[in-house]
Design a protein that fits this description.
The complex is a heterodimer of chains A (about 750) and B (about 180). The longest helix of chain A has 19 residues, at about 125-145. Chain A is α/β, with parallel strands linked by helices and about 750 residues long. Chain A has 25 helices and 27 strands. A 7-stranded mixed beta sheet of chain A has the order 5-4-17-16-15-6-7. Chain A has a 6-stranded mixed beta barrel with strand order 22-26-23-25-24-27. In chain A, α5 crosses α19 (about 510-520), α7 (about 175-185) packs parallel to α15 and α10 (about 255-270) packs across α14. In chain A, a hairpin with a 2-residue loop joins β24 (about 655-660) and β25. Among the domains of chain A are: about 1-40, no CATH class; about 45-85 and about 480-510 and about 530-560, Phosphorylase Kinase, domain 1 (2-Layer Sandwich); about 190-365, Dimethylsulfoxide Reductase, domain 2, CATH 3.40.228.10; about 600-739, Barwin-like endoglucanases (Beta Barrel). Chain B has about 180 residues and is α+β, with helices and mostly antiparallel strands. Chain B has helices spanning about 20-30, 65-70, 95-100, 125-130, 135-140, 155-160; strands spanning about 5-10, 40-45, 50-60, 75-80, 85, 110, 115-120, 145-150, 165, 180. Helix content of chain B is about 20%, strand content about 30%. Classes of the chains: A alpha/beta (about 750), B alpha+beta (about 180).
Chain lengths: ~750, ~180
C-alpha cells in the first residue's frame, strides 16, 4: 500500500521535529505549538477562578506547551461543581483575542463619537500615567478633587479617598442595588442563598438564572425540581428558560408582580396560614404588615396584574402549606427594573419570613461568606472636604450611607454633569463600564462631551475606549493571581485561589497597579493600600496559610459543609430579628412596610406600544463577552423578541428590522417572533450594540437596549418614593415600527 | 469481561440550552474554525399562552448501524471497539458522503490542513478510557448528560435508561448508542 497524502505530510512533520530535537534548528520550533507534530506536548494544570460573572467558579487551566487550551471546572468548588458555562469555557478566547488592547493608547482625533476613528497613538506606560495624573492634577487644582469621578465597579474607592473625591459612581442602581438594600434592611445581609436542592416549592418572579446559565443556580433548581420533586412556578411576561422548566408559567403584566405578592401576603395572613411560632420568635413587625396588606386583596391584584384571583389564592395556599419554599431574587428582573422594585424584594422576603422559610433547609439561607483580611493604607487619608456627591447619593442615605460607599444613583449622573450641579465635573476615570450599560446613552454621550478628560481602563477597544482621551489596557483575569471568597450564593464557607495561567501576553497592568501608579504620581500613594502579589499572603493570614499553601491545597479552601442554622435573633438588622417593619425607613420619610402605589403603573395605550423587558442570552454576559470567538460563533447578534400574533398585526415578519422609540431615544434591531411572550410586551436582549470597529466580531452586533431606557435625574427618583434611587430602567413604554 | 459499549443520554427535562457543552467540546478536541461538533436546537411549540419550549443537545448518535459508515468509500468512518463511530483522518479523503448520509445531520465539513475532514463527536473516548467524563458531560451546568458503559447493568447510564430514555428516530433503524429522555410538559 502506498503512502496517502496525509501520511506523507506527517512523516515530513516528524522529521522536522527530529531535526529540531537534535538542536540543529535551535529551540524556536519547540516553542511553536503548531510545529512538532510528534513531540508529546508538555502539559501542566494551574488553579484559576473565573471572573466573567460574579459567581467566580473555580477551575483548572490546562496548559499545553505554554499555551492555555482548556478550562475545566473543579468538582470541589460549590459554584462550578466540575462544570463551567459557555462563557467560562470561552475565557481562553478573551486571553488570546487578537483585538485586545496591547498598550496604552492616546486619542489624537477630536470629538467623542462612538466608533469614530480616534487616531490612536501608542504611548508608553510612563507617558500614559504622566498624562493622566497631570490632567487629574489640573482638575483638582482648579475645581477641587470632587471634579474627578470614577465610574465603575466600586474599584476606585481607595483612589478617590486618597485624592479626596466622594464621587464613586457605580452601576449598581441599574443592577442589584434593590436586592442588596432590601435584603440588608430585612435580614442584615446583602444577599441570601436559595436552597433549591432541598426545596419543595420554588416561586419565581421574573427570575431567570437558568436562561442566563448561572452555573450553581441552574444546577440547584434542576436538582430541586427533578430529584426533590419541588414544584416550580414562574411569573414572567416572557416564557423564559426557567419558565420552560417550570410546572406553571403565569404571563403576568410587566411591573405588577408586587401587587400579586402583596395579595398573597394578604391571603396567607388573613387565612391564618403563617407560621405563628416562627413569627413570634424571629419576625419584627408582623402586626403592622397584617394591617397594611388588608387592603391588597387578590381581586384588587387581579385587576392590576391580569392574574386570576383564584390563581393568586391557590399559589398562596401552596406556598404556605408548610413545605420548604423559596422565592429566589437576583437583579434586573421583575425585582429591579420598575418602580416598586425595592418593595417587591421586601415583600418576597416578608412572604418567606412569615411562612418560616428563612434559614431553613429548602428556603432562603443566610450566606456563609468567608472573611479575608484587606490591607490598609500606610497613613489614614484625610477626611473628605466635599461629601456631596454628583449623583445625589447623599440624598438617599439608605443607598449611600457614607460618601464613597453604597450603591449610588448611576442614572442621575449625566444630568448632573450637564447641569454642572452641584459643582463642575472635569475628569472621569471609566473602569469596566461600556456604553451598553449606560441608560439613555445619548445623554451620557453629551455628558462625556462636556468633560475635559476621560480615562478608560479596559480590556477591549470597545466604543467606550473610542470616546476616551486615554485608554489604559488592563490584564485579563487569566494573567493575574487573585483570591475569591464566595460571595454570591455562598452556601458554605469557601475561598478559591487563582494563579496566573500564562505570563502577561501584552504590556497590560492590573487595575490596582494602575490606581497606585496614578496615586504615586499625584503624591498621595501613602493613602493607598498596598497592592499586588505581596497582599495575597496577608489576605489569607487569619487562616494561618500563605497564598502558596492555598495553591498547594488544591486552590480551594473549604469550611464545614454541615448545615448549622444561624441565630435569627442576632441579625444585623435594627431589631436583630427579621425586620419587616423598618423604623429607619419611616424616619427617612419612606413607607416602613412593603406597599403599593398605583401611580407607579404605566400602560401601553396604542396598538404599536409595548412594555419593555430585557433579558440576556445564556452565552453572553452583558457587553464583555461579545468579541469572544466561540460565543460569537453561537450568537453573533442580538435581537428583539415580539409576540408572533401581535407582530403579524403590525406587519412585522421574523428577521425584519424594527425601530424602537421611547421618550428617551431610538434604536433599531432585528425582530425575532416567538409565541412565548405577552402580546403587549417586547423583550430586548441586553449587552449588544457595540459601535467600535476595533473589536471586529462584536462590531454592530444588534440593538442596544440602554439607548431607549431612561436615566432619571435624582429629583424623579425622589418623586417615585424609591428609597434606593434605582429600579427605573424599564419604566418606559416603547413604540415599535417596521423600518 | 464483557466488551464495553459506550453510550450517552441527554435528559431534555434538565437541559437549559446554555451551550456549555458545545464550547467545552470545541476546547477539548481543539476543533479549528469554530465548527461545532455539538449544537443546541431550540424547539418552541404551541400558541400563547399555551407555549412550551425545550432545547436539545444535538451531536453524533453513534449508531450501531451507521449510514455514515456504510457511505464512506475509504473506510475512514468506522466502528470502534467500544461501539462508537469515529473518523480516521489518515484514510479520509474529504468527499463529504458521510455528511450527506447522516440522517441526523450531525456531521459538518471542516477545512483541515490537508483537506476537508468531517467534524463529529467522538464521545471523548480518550477521556472515557482514562475514567474521566467527556467534555460535554463534565461541563453540563444542569447535570443533563450522562455517559457510561451500556453493557454494564450496574452503570449510572443504565439507571437513566430505566427513566424512559428513547432512541432518536427509531424508525430509521440506526440503533444509536445515544439516547434522550424526552421533554415532558
Amino acid at each position: 500500500m502506498g503512502l496517502t497524502r496525509r501520511e506523507f505530510f506527517k512523516l515530513g512533520g516528524g522529521s522536522i521535529a527530529a531535526i529540531a530535537g537534535a538542536g540543529i534548528l535551535g529551540n524556536s520550533l519547540f516553542n511553536n505549538p503548531e510545529a512538532p507534530a510528534y513531540a508529546a506536548p508538555r502539559i501542566e494544570y494551574k488553579h484559576g477562578v473565573c471572573e466573567i460573572c460574579e459567581m467566580n467558579c473555580a477551575f483548572l487551566g490546562k496548559i499545553e506547551n505554554g499555551r492555555l487550551v482548556k478550562l475545566e471546572g473543579k468538582p470541589k468548588d460549590q459554584h462550578s461543581r466540575g462544570a463551567l458555562c459557555a462563557k467560562g469555557n470561552s475565557g481562553i478566547n478573551m486571553l488570546y483575542d487578537p483585538d485586545r488592547l496591547k498598550a496604552p493608547l492616546l486619542k489624537t482625533a477630536p470629538g467623542r463619537i462612538p466608533g469614530q476613528d480616534p487616531k490612536w497613538k501608542k504611548i508608553s506606560w510612563d507617558e500614559a500615567i504622566n498624562r493622566a495624573a497631570s490632567e487629574i492634577q489640573k482638575a483638582i487644582e482648579k475645581y477641587g478633587p470632587q471634579s474627578v469621578i470614577w465610574i465603575g465597579h466600586n474599584k476606585g474607592t481607595d483612589f478617590l479617598r486618597a485624592i479626596g473625591s466622594p464621587n464613586n459612581i457605580n452601576h449598581q442602581s441599574t443592577c442589584n442595588a434593590v436586592r442588596i438594600m432590601a435584603t440588608r434592611i430585612t435580614l442584615g445581609v446583602a444577599n441570601y442563598v436559595p436552597d433549591f436542592e432541598n426545596s419543595k416549592y420554588i416561586l419565581c418572579f421574573g427570575w431567570d438564572q437558568l436562561g442566563k446559565a448561572k452555573n450553581s443556580l441552574a444546577r440547584g433548581l434542576i436538582e430541586g425540581k427533578i430529584k426533590n420533586n419541588a414544584k416550580v412556578v414562574v411569573f414572567d411576561p416572557r416564557f423564559s428558560t426557567t419558565a420552560s422548566k417550570a410546572h406553571e408559567w403565569i404571563p403576568i403584566r410587566p411591573g405588577t408582580d408586587l401587587a400579586v405578592v402583596l395579595a398573597m401576603l394578604n391571603v396567607i395572613i388573613s387565612e391564618g396560614r403563617y407560621n405563628a411560632d416562627f413569627v413570634a420568635k424571629y419576625v419584627e413587625g408582623f402586626e403592622e404588615l397584617a394591617e397594611e396588606v388588608k387592603k391588597y386583596t387578590p381581586e384588587w391584584a387581579s385587576k392590576i396584574s391580569d392574574v386570576p384571583a383564584g390563581t393568586i389564592r391557590r399559589i398562596a395556599h401552596e406556598f404556605s402549606g408548610g413545605c420548604p419554599a423559596v422565592i429566589p431574587i437576583h437583579k434586573r428582573e421583575a425585582i429591579q427594573v420598575r418602580p416598586g422594585g425595592f418593595e417587591l424584594a421586601r415583600a418576597c422576603l416578608a412572604m418567606m419570613a412569615i411562612t418560616g422559610n428563612i434559614e431553613r433547609r429548602g428556603g432562603a439561607l443566610l450566606p456563609r461568606i468567608a472573611p479575608l483580611n484587606y490591607p490598609k493604607p500606610k497613613e489614614k487619608p484625610p477626611e473628605l472636604q466635599v461629601t456631596e456627591r454628583i449623583d445625589g447619593g447623599h440624598l438617599f442615605p439608605l443607598a449611600v450611607p457614607k460618601p464613597l460607599s453604597g450603591t449610588g444613583l448611576y442614572q442621575s449622573v449625566p444630568d448632573m454633569i450637564l447641569r454642572g450641579e452641584p459643582y463642575p465635573v472635569k475628569v472621569a476615570v471609566v473602569y469596566g463600564q461600556s456604553l451598553q450599560s449606560m441608560p439613555e446613552t445619548e445623554k451620557w454621550l453629551k455628558a462625556f462631551e462636556k468633560l475635559d478628560y476621560v480615562i478608560n481602563i479596559n480590556i477591549y477597544p470597545d466604543d467606550m475606549a473610542t470616546i476616551s482621551d486615554l485608554v489604559l489596557p488592563e490584564s485579563v483575569y487569566l494573567e493575574t493571581p487573585h483570591i475569591s471568597p464566595r460571595i454570591t450564593n455562598a452556601r458554605y464557607y469557601q475561598i478559591a485561589v487563582a494563579e496566573p495561567m500564562v505570563k502577561k501576553l501584552y504590556d497590560t497592568k492590573e487595575v490596582d497597579e494602575i490606581k497606585y501608579l496614578l496615586a504615586k504620581k499625584l503624591g498621595v500613594d501613602k493613602y493607598m493600600p498596598p497592592h499586588g502579589e505581596k497582599v495575597l499572603d496577608y489576605k489569607l493570614k487569619r487562616y494561618g496559610l500563605t497564598y502558596k499553601d492555598a495553591l498547594k491545597k488544591g486552590g480551594i479552601l473549604n469550611g464545614s459543609q454541615k448545615f448549622t442554622p444561624k441565630d435569627l435573633t442576632s441579625l444585623r438588622t435594627e431589631s436583630g430579628k427579621i425586620q419587616i417593619y423598618s423604623p429607619k425607613l419611616k424616619e427617612l420619610g419612606y413607607n416602613p412596610l412593603p406597599w403599593f402605589d398605583e401611580t407607579w403603573l404605566i400602560e401601553p395605550k396604542a396598538d404599536d406600544e409595548f412594555y419593555l423587558v430585557t433579558s440576556r442570552p445564556p452565552m453572553h454576559r452583558h457587553s464583555k463577552t461579545h468579541n469572544m470567538r466561540w460565543l460569537h460563533a453561537i450568537m453573533p447578534e442580538g435581537f428583539i423578541y415580539i409576540n408572533a400574533a401581535k407582530a403579524e398585526k403590525l406587519g412585522i415578519k421574523d428577521g425584519d428590522m424594527v425601530e424602537l422609540s421611547s421618550k428617551y431615544g431610538k434604536e433599531t434591531g432585528k425582530a425575532k417572533l416567538i409565541q412565548g411572550i405577552r402580546p403587549d410586551t417586547i423583550c430586548v436582549l441586553h449587552g449588544f450594540g457595540n459601535k467600535s470597529p476595533y473589536i471586529k466580531l462584536a462590531y454592530n452586533n444588534g440593538p442596544n437596549d440602554s439607548r431607549i431606557m431612561p436615566a432619571y435625574p435624582k429629583e424623579v427618583n425622589m418623586t417615585l418614593k424609591d428609597p434606593v434611587g434605582a429600579s427605573m430602567d424599564c419604566h418606559v413604554i416603547v413604540k415599535v415600527r417596521k423600518v | 469481561m464483557a466488551k464495553k459499549r459506550w453510550g450517552k443520554i441527554v435528559d431534555l427535562n434538565k437541559c437549559v440550552g446554555c451551550h456549555a457543552c458545545s464550547v467545552a467540546c470545541l476546547a477539548e478536541n481543539k476543533v479549528p474554525n469554530d465548527k461545532f461538533r455539538t449544537k443546541i436546537i431550540e424547539h418552541e411549540e404551541g400558541i400563547f399562552p399555551n407555549v412550551y419550549r425545550y432545547t436539545e443537545k444535538w451531536s453524533c448518535n453513534h449508531c450501531q448501524k451507521a449510514p455514515c459508515v456504510d457511505a464512506c468509500p475509504t473506510k475512514a468512518s468506522h466502528y470502534t471497539e467500544w461501539g462508537t463511530v469515529e473518523v480516521n483522518p489518515d484514510l479520509c479523503i474529504g468527499c463529504g458522503y458521510c455528511v450527506l448520509a447522516c440522517p441526523y445531520r450531525v456531521r459538518v465539513m471542516n477545512e483541515r490542513e490537508h483537506g476537508g475532514l468531517p467534524e463529529k463527536c467522538t464521545l471523548c473516548t480518550h477521556r472515557l478510557e482514562k475514567g474521566e467524563k467527556p467534555a460535554c458531560e463534565a461541563s453540563c451546568i444542569a447535570g443533563a448528560i450522562i455517559t457510561g458503559d451500556l453493557n454494564n447493568p450496574d452503570s449510572e447510564i443504565n439507571k437513566w435508561m430505566a427513566k424512559g430514555a428513547v432512541e432518536r428516530r427509531p424508525d430509521l433503524k440506526t440503533h444509536p448508542n445515544v439516547f434522550i429522555i424526552p421533554y415532558r410538559r
